[in-house]
Amino acid sequence: MKRLLVISIMLVTLLPLVAGGKTEQNTTTATVNNLAWLEGPGVGGLPEVNPLKVSGSIITAGSSTVFPLSERMAERFKQEGYSGAITIDSIGSGAGFERFTVAGETDIANASRPIKEKERANAQAIGRKPLEFRVGTDALSVVVSKQNTFAKNATKQELAKLFSTANTWSDVNPAWPNEAIQRFIPGTDSGTFDYFAEEIFTAKAEPMLSANNLQLSEDDNILVQGIKGSPYAIGFFGYAYYAENAGELNILDIEGIQATSANVDNGTYPLARPLFLYSDASIMRSKPQVAAFIDFYLSYVNEEITHVGYFPANEQELQKGRALWLEAMDGIL
Amino acid sequence: MEYFEMKAPHPFGRKRRVHERVIETTLFIFALLSILITVGIAVILVRESFLFFSDPAVRLLDFFTGKVWQPMIGLFGFLPLLNATMTTSIIAIILGGPLGLFVAIYLAEYASERTRGILKPTLEVLAGIPTIVYGYFALTFMTPLLRTLFGETNVEIYNTASAGLVIGILILPMIATMAEDALVSVPKELRLASYALGATKIETTCKVIIPAALSGLSATFLLALSRAIGETMIVALAAGAGPKLTANPFKAAETMTGYIVRISGGDVSYNSVDYNSIFALGLVLFVITFTLNLVSRTVSGHFHQEYD
């Protein structure tokens, strides 16, 4: 009898495991009182943050493009005294939104594209209202290996062929060699993939996914490795990954326009795109460390962004985010 | 007949001490736990794969015969993944099998106690290296080596040959150890009889010991094959990140395990057909390795019957 009892108790405790249920719940405890880090007026109307007085953990996930920037901001946040734990998962914008809006596991979603209507609706369903903070601009880079001596520039039509139907380089441009194109592109859950599909293939994923010799990865370093390896390889990703590997990669001009900070600022570079953080007012209010980090991010991102390899967002956009922050924290400051 | 032997009656009769019962129950629970976990894994795999196969977009026939795997756009042919898995595993067995067998023969038949004492622990170190290290070894050593040998234009940076060869190195210690056990457990009488008939050591090894240990050796290779099929980290790093149906081992191709890693690393949303596809692949992998293990058990069981 006793043995039976023990076994049945064990079965009950195991059941959630076997049933595979998601047991993770959003356990945000109200610690609204912990706003000791606020210090007088700071940048653009935001209060100054004293990272020494910020405690508690921050969980972020999303775009691999935004990742190096968030990582740098988090490092600076820590250097200036933040003692909590901050996680930044580089899993792609879509997966980042998934965790933020469906599972509700994260405090901040990093994204290299704006949130979609469907994702907003998902967030609504779990009681979150995503707030958009613009943090910078990326020049999406189409790159080839340094050993590639023939390709210097590509038009949008050429890009469309390069990443879909063409088999060899000469199929795209007769001046290019008759060698098979090897493609290395970000995975389908990446904001970079979505953005490229949007710009080049009118938001359709099929042409890119049905291409030959295609390799997909959420890890941009895998793409860099692959492109480096052959003169006939081509790929694309955020400018930061090009900047980091500029010794071994060549970036193509798009429609004859170079990816320079001037061309990104004045909007002539055809593949310039915004970078965002998303969070939610109730998270920022119940986990003030999240509000502190976003405040810090929006205050100092322009001092760091060029070191990572991206371009500052225009001041108006940044200011919009700061206003949104103040609105979210209204009443408890 | 030993199964019907009765247990010796307990010295204290029926009045056993309480703590003995507690210990017995605890041990029993742990034994049960491992079974329950296995069953739990199987149940989840079957349930989630059912979600995949019951999706109207997925046709069972297409799954097993289709030549393109790109779930995002509704192409569910898993042949490219199976092909890549088979390519890496077979390359691994071709390298690891004979090498492991030679090591085992040396250890079992030729090595002195001293060399054995040095060789065995070294092999065990090889077995203890984390597979992620093997993965980078493939990417930063094996691939460049293959590219120098066969030409950069012929060998792609990610390729199944490099991953397969390194998996071969990974399974070598496992094959060596298990094959050695199989060789050692051949009854001494057979060896002595062979020597008595005037056979040399090499003749005895090749014509008596190996045939006698054949079922144990086959079981070893089957288990090693199943290990190679399930290997994940090496192929995820070195074999490639895009499904491709190709017979050329110097080209990039994604294996089943490689695909599962890529997708669970954040490639698609939960509750989508492409996400469920990884459970279907998991189930296929489970069935393949389970069958291999079962066959290997049967084969080695046969062996024990013969000589015990």
Structure description:
The complex is a heterodimer of chains A (333) and B (308). Chain A is built from 14 helices and 14 strands. By secondary structure, chain A is an alpha/beta fold. Chain A has 2 domains: 2-137 and 274-329, 3-Layer(aba) Sandwich (D-Maltodextrin-Binding Protein, domain 2), CATH 3.40.190.10; 141-270, Periplasmic binding protein-like II (D-Maltodextrin-Binding Protein, domain 2). In chain A, helix 2 packs across helix 13 and helix 3 packs parallel to helix 4. The model of chain A is unreliable at 10-32 (pLDDT under 50). In chain B, a hairpin with a 4-residue loop joins strand 1 (69-70) and strand 2 (75-76). With 308 residues, chain B is mostly helical. The mean pLDDT of chain B is 85. The longest helix of chain B has 36 residues, at 18-53. Chain B is built from 12 helices and 2 strands. Chain B starts with 17 loop residues before the first helix and ends with a helix. The interface between A and B is large, with 40 and 34 residues.
Global outline of chain B: globular
State the separation between the terminal residues of chain B, measured CA to CA.
14 Å
Strand order of the largest sheet of chain B: 1-2
- The count of domains of chain A is 2
Entry summary:
The complex is a heterodimer of chains A (333) and B (308). With 333 residues, chain A is α/β, with parallel strands linked by helices.
Keywords:
heterodimer; A: 333 residues; alpha/beta; D-Maltodextrin-Binding Protein, domain 2; 2 domains; 5-stranded mixed beta sheet; 14 helices; 41% helix; 20% strand; B: 308 residues; mainly alpha; 12 helices; globular
